């Protein structure tokens, strides 16, 4: 006999069905590779690459090498500086875009760089920054300098190119939240005695917090794992964690150590994501509370009226 | 009397080809409850934004007590605004919203608390101070906005259609409260609205605006009873307006008695006015529906200047305390005359005047008036 499903059961079955392709994709290309990396990080390195199937914590012990600590430290400060600059530039950009009449056009301009492969864009930066590059030639022709400045193969070049690469990821979420922001609140703040700067710091920033945290995560996490930028425009003292992982896989052939570093990256990203989820949940929770309080408020109001 | 005198002189403001304000001059007295009344797009909000400092005139001057305020940014002006959309800060509680202006001036904690509670009391929001704006009803939000705007002790309070987002009953209550608050704080209130009943009920004086110009400034009584132009007559309250030509004009004591030819009434109409008009001049004749008497029998009047017309009740609209009738005239069936009648006595068989009844409508010469059509 054919069993007739109740609507709720049907819904549940359909839900499973709809999410199947996504689930399959995540299992094949995300969960399985991540599990392999976790597994490898706890194994012994093979002599010519690969792993030996024997439990070992040596990969994690090797991480506490002072030279790695230096790289980790550098990765952290380069990431923080680049992310902060991204946010500081993206904030006025997002503001201007939200206020502009040509939003679609400006969004289009932000998308354009993505049409070109990122490697090619990094090479473009090399040709701009190198000693005989565009910028040095320009400055020489203008007579501002006599000798080429060393603009490339150092940490500053890494930071500049990282900011360039990840700026759109900061602008887009900031633009969407600022676009939803009620600008009459700024008028109100000015009216009540705030200067323009005070009105932005005290009224606008607290109200676009969710956009700021999204922009932070969208830029900080990829910058933290960056390896092409430091590889191509950085000097010998610009290595970041991403470069170590590549080196451990392809040169030193220490796969467990590469896996262990990947675990560090993943954990730091996870912390970021959980922080975002947590703050989002808190906001949601607050909204719900507010709604309940409003209903309560209306109820008591009515009952008071009734008494009168 | 607290507050300042607000003077705008020859203020103009254009957006592209659109003249939002066209050479507007107005003088608002100290401590006055002054309304700017007009349809949307008439320039009233632009004038308010110029006074607040959010907009800047192309030409003209604005002064508080003869001191030019145009060079000052909004935060330096002795005026605070209550916004149409409330513009409460969503991330702050009611208490912090009201305390916001004080916090900006780094007022000490004890003073902040004492002043905030004073204004919370003024707008009757005790018990709500720890709520976020999203937890408040529309009326409560507007009270917060009023308290927040008043706590700086400004000399002028600017109100930009503050009640338009509220329902009718609440609007009436808040309007009365607003009037009481005005009496208590005693500063100059400038109230922008498109709702003529709001403006009439609370204002000391009203400026009626249309198409960037001020058409008339006066007390509610003057504006309603002696409108200066055709627009004012039709915008404030309801009225009957007919184009007319002056047939004769003779002095009658202090007034003038005019005989008019009104084609839409197919008859002559008598009207008294304080101004003499040239014979042959084209004007508009208007009479308010509540000034017209309606009866089944011709009015027994020995006054020769009584205007009486016979007609049929085309459309009775009952609204409880009164009825509105549209009367189709016998002599000119294409003209409908609007008449209000109060229901002062209860009749078992229903209202005295019914649909399709033959009736007489009449008004005396000093109930009608003449207006000029200045817009064209």
Mind explaining what this structure looks like?
- The complex is a heterodimer of chains A (about 300) and B (about 375).
- Chain A is an all-alpha fold and about 300 residues long.
- Chain A has one domain (about 60-275): MetI-like (MetI-like fold, Orthogonal Bundle).
- Helices cover about 75% and strands about 5% of the residues of chain A.
- A two-stranded antiparallel sheet of chain A has the order 1-2.
- Chain A is globular, with a radius of gyration of 26 Å.
- Chain B has two domains: about 5-230, P-loop containing nucleotide triphosphate hydrolases (Rossmann fold, 3-Layer(aba) Sandwich); about 240-370, OB fold (Dihydrolipoamide Acetyltransferase, E2P) (Beta Barrel).
- Chain B has a six-stranded mixed sheet with strand order 6-7-8-3-9-10, with helices on both faces. Chain B has a five-stranded antiparallel sheet with strand order 13-12-11-14-20. Chain B has a five-stranded antiparallel sheet with strand order 15-19-16-17-18, with no helix packed on it.
- The longest helix of chain B has 18 residues, at about 170-185.
- At the A-B interface, helix 8, helix 9 and helix 13 of A face strand 6 and helix 2 of B.
Write a brief structural summary.
The complex is a heterodimer of chains A (308) and B (376). In chain A, 76% of the residues lie in helices and 3% in strands.
The strand line-up of the biggest sheet of chain B is 6-7-8-3-9-10
Q: H/E element string of chain B?
A: EEEHEEEHHHEHEHEEHHEEEEEEEEEE
CATH top level assignment of chain A: Mainly Alpha
CATH hierarchy class name of the largest domain in chain B: Alpha Beta
The sequence of SSEs of chain A as H and E is HEEHHHHHHHHHHHH
* Terminal residue distance of chain B: 41 Å
Q: Mind summarizing the main beta sheet of chain B?
A: 6 strands, mixed
Overall geometric form of chain B = elongated
* Number of helical stretches of at least 4 residues of chain B: 8
The CATH homologous superfamily of the largest domain in chain B: P-loop containing nucleotide triphosphate hydrolases
Helicity of chain A, as a percent range: over 70%
Catalytic activity (chain B): ATP + H2O + polyamine-[polyamine-binding protein]Side 1 = ADP + phosphate + polyamineSide 2 + [polyamine-binding protein]Side 1
EC number (chain B): 7.6.2.11
Family (chain B): Belongs to the ABC transporter superfamily. Spermidine/putrescine importer (TC 3.A.1.11.1) family.
GO cellular component, one term (chain B): ATP-binding cassette (ABC) transporter complex
């Amino acid at each position: 006999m054919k069993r007739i499903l109740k609507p709720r059961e049907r819904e549940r079955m359909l839900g499973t069905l709809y999410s199947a392709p996504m689930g399959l994709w995540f299992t094949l290309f995300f969960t399985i590779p991540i599990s392999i990396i976790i597994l490898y990080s706890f194994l012994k390195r093979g002599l010519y690459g690969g792993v030996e199937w024997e439990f070992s914590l040596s990969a994690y012990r090797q991480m506490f090498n002072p030279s790695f600590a230096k790289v980790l430290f550098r990765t952290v400060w380069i990431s923080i500086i680049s992310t902060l600059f991204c946010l500081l530039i993206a904030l006025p950009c997002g503001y201007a875009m939200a206020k502009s009449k040509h939003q679609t056009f400006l969004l289009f301009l932000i998308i354009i760089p993505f049409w070109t492969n990122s490697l090619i864009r990094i090479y473009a930066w090399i040709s701009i920054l190198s000693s005989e590059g565009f910028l040095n030639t320009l400055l020489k022709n203008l007579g501002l300098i006599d000798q080429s400045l060393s603009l490339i193969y150092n940490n500053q070049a890494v930071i500049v190119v990282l900011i360039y690469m990840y700026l759109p990821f900061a602008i887009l979420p900031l633009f969407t939240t600022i676009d939803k922001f009620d600008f009459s609140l700024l008028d109100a703040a000015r009216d009540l005695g705030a200067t323009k700067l005070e009105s932005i710091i005290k009224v606008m920033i607290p109200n676009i917090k969710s956009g700021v945290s999204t922009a932070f995560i969208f830029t900080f996490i990829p910058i933290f794992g960056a390896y092409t930028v430091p590889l191509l425009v950085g000097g010998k003292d610009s290595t970041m964690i991403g470069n170590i992982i590549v080196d451990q896989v392809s040169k030193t052939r220490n796969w467990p150590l590469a896996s262990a570093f990947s675990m560090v990256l993943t954990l730091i990203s996870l912390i970021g994501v959980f922080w975002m989820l947590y703050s989002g949940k808190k906001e949601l929770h607050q909204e719900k509370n507010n709604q309940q309080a409003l209903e309560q408020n209306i109820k008591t109001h009515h009952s008071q009226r009734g008494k009168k | 009397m607290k507050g300042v005198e607000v003077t705008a002189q020859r203020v103009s403001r254009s957006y592209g080809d659109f003249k939002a304000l066209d050479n507007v001059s107005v003088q608002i007295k100290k401590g006055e409850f002054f309304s700017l009344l007009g349809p949307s797009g008439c320039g009233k909000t632009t004038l308010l934004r110029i006074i607040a400092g959010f907009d800047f005139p192309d030409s003209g001057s604005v002064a508080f007590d003869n001191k030019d305020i145009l060079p000052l940014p909004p935060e330096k002006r002795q005026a605070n605004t209550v916004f149409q959309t409330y513009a409460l800060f969503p991330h702050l509680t009611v208490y912090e919203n009201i305390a916001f202006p004080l916090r900006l001036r780094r007022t000490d904690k004890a003073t902040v608390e004492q002043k905030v509670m004073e204004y919370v009391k003024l707008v009757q929001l005790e018990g709500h101070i720890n709520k976020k704006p999203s937890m408040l009803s529309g009326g409560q939000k507007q009270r917060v906005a009023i308290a927040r705007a008043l706590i700086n002790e400004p000399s002028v309070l600017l109100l930009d259609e503050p009640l338009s987002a509220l329902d009718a009953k609440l609007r009436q209550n808040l309007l009365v409260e607003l009037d009481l608050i005005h009496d208590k704080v005693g500063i100059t209130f400038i109230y922008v609205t498109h709702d003529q009943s709001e403006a009439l009920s609370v204002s000391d004086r009203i400026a009626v605006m249309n198409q960037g110009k001020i058409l008339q400034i006066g007390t509610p009584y003057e504006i309603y009873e002696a409108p200066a132009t055709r627009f004012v007559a039709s915008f404030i309250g309801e009225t009957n307006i007919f184009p007319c030509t002056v047939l004769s004009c003779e002095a009658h004591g202090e007034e003038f008695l005019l005989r008019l030819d009104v084609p839409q009434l197919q008859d002559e109409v008598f009207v008294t006015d304080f101004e003499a008009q040239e014979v042959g001049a084209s004007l508009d004749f208007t009479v308010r529906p509540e000034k017209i008497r309606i009866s089944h029998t011709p009015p027994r009047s020995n006054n020769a200047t009584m205007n009486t017309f016979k007609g049929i009740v085309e459309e009775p609209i009952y609204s409880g305390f009164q009825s509105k009738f549209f009367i189709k005239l016998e002599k000119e069936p294409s003209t409908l005359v609007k008449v209000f009648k109060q229901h002062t006595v209860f009749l078992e068989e229903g209202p005295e005047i019914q649909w399709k009844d033959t009736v007489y409508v009449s008004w005396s010469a000093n109930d009608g008036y003449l207006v000029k059509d200045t817009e064209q």
